[in-house]
Amino acid sequence: MPEMLPVEAVTREALCRSTELAERGLAFVWDVLQWQQPARAFALRFDGAVVAYVNRCSHVPTEMDWQPGEFLDMDKRWILCSIHGAMYEPADGRCVSGPCGRGRLTAIRVEEEGGQVYWYPSRDIRPLSPDDPAPRSL
Ligand code: FES
After folding, report:
1. Under a CB-based contact definition with an 8 Å cutoff, are residues 87 and 78 in contact?
2. Position 115 in a domain
3. Is the CB of 107 under 6 A from ligand 1?
């Protein structure tokens, strides 16, 4: 029987170069599998730190960017869902205004090292393999 690896042993995945994420700029969007279903995720830089979430609003499970990679509001203060205007705190993904109530975005662990950004797959969110179907925009 194969030995199960502890969660901490999961290897990180290279995501993008640090220079691709400007402060409060365009997000880096990539495909993942969440609960075995294709989904999109995004990473952006906010107050110097890289944060990442599944691109799925907690109000209605749909993608939130109003243009590809554009997640922040006009003032670049909140993550804004383009569908009904829910606003989320970029630092932790919790809903601060709108129909998302007490919801929050699903965070993805990221790390920045040596000019490279990495993300960590989890039990629920893993990389898309070449054999998996690509996510459809919701
Ligand atoms: S789907 Fe995001 S606010 Fe309704």
Report:
1. yes
2. yes
3. no
Query: CA triplet 69, 119, 53: central angle to 5 degrees?
Result: 45
- The CA-atom distances, in angstroms, between 32 and each of 12, 74, 86, 87 are 13, 28, 23, 23
Q: What is the pLDDT of residues 98-123, one digit of tens each?
A: 999 999 999 999 999 999 999 999 99
CATH of residue 71's domain is 2.102.10.10
Q: 2-17: per-residue pLDDT in tens?
A: 555 555 566 999 999 9
Any atom of ligand 1 within 6 Å of the Cβ of 84: yes
Per the structure, the complete domain to which residue 94 belongs is given by 12-123
pLDDT tens digits for range 25-70: 999 999 999 999 999 999 999 999 999 999 999 999 999 999 999 9
Which of 58, 73, 83 for a ligand 1 pocket mutation test, highest count of atoms within 8 Å of Cβ? Answer: 83
Tell how far the Cα of 61 is from the centroid of ligand 1, in angstroms. Answer: 8
Count of domains for the chain: 1
